[in-house]
Every structure is written in C-alpha cells, then in structure tokens.
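How it folds:
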Amino acid sequence: MHIAIAGNIGSGKTTLTRALSKHYNWKPLFEDVDTNPYLQSFYEDMQRWSFNLQVYFLNSRFRQVVEIRRSGKNVIQDRSIYEDAYIFAPNLHAMNLMTTRDFENYFSLFELMSSFLQAPDLLIYLRATVPTLVDQIQNRGRDYEESIRLDYLKSLNDRYESWINNYKLGKLIIFNVDNMDLTQPEDLGVVIEKIDAELHGLF
C-alpha cells in the first residue's frame, strides 16, 4: 500500500511521515533535500535553476513510486509526484521564474511518467496558513530556506487548495495543522484515528 503526505513547505510532512512510519511500521520515503545538488542554487537564483530543480525532483519521485510498487510493502511517502507538477512548477512559471518553453517541456515529461504510475492508495493533505508555515520553517532552521518569500508561500498555498479541491485520484484525508502539534501524542492520536477509519476500507 502506498500512502503519500502532501502539503506546503513547513506544513509538517516529514514530522508526520516519521511518526506514522513508526506507529504503523510502514517504510518511510523522504523528500531528497539533503543530497539535492540544486536546492541551494535554486534558492539563491530561482530563475536560473528552477527547471533543473523540478526535473531533479520529478526523476527522484518517479523512482520512488516505481520502487514502492515493486516492493509490495506498505510505504509512506513525504510529498507526492503530483505536487511538483500541479503546484511547484506552474507556480514558478506564473512567477516568471521558469520559461514557458521549460515549463511545457517539464509538464510533457510529467504526463508521460504519470501515465505509467498508480496514484497513492491514500493521500493525506496538511493544510496550513502562511504564518504557521513561516513559524515552522524558522524553527527547523535550514539555511537555504531563509530567503523564501511570503508571496511565494502564499501562491503555493493557493495552488495547493485548488489541486486538493479537484483531487479525484484516490482516497483523501485533510488535516488543518494550524492548531495542531504533530509531535504531541494527543494531536497525533487524532490523525491516527482518522487514518485507521480510512484504512479499514483499503485492506
């Protein structure tokens, strides 16, 4: 079974991936941030490196999904392949940080790849307002994230809401994390209870 956690930068995806992996004994697959050769360059010059970064993520996540289906194990994935294609890449294009030529090339590649993929059995979306995202980004203290702009986070949030409102690929659970702390047992328990209810229909 393939479970994916979706959400904006700083919404708590990695924290929840770790917690659910431990609780359910699922194999976690994390976003490739520490070894990503483009991320630092991207935040220093988004226009120059946007296409390279998005293709890198697309390749990385495509490999993850192929590995998930081949393994036959229960896997929880930190961010889905769809978020890159429907949120991050079009947002960069709209902000004139990716050329139309590059965006069309990228999206054509995504469409081809996605035609070979099965969607997650369950998608968990972490909804958060910009102030919550900023707080959590600052708390984790990644150097390359210090230059993230508020308008960038807001436009990503708008695209997330549009994508989630039209999501029809499989089962979906939404959690509003503005008033939650996913490191606390009580809040995590609320999440697990809802997931359990959904999973009974998947097994």
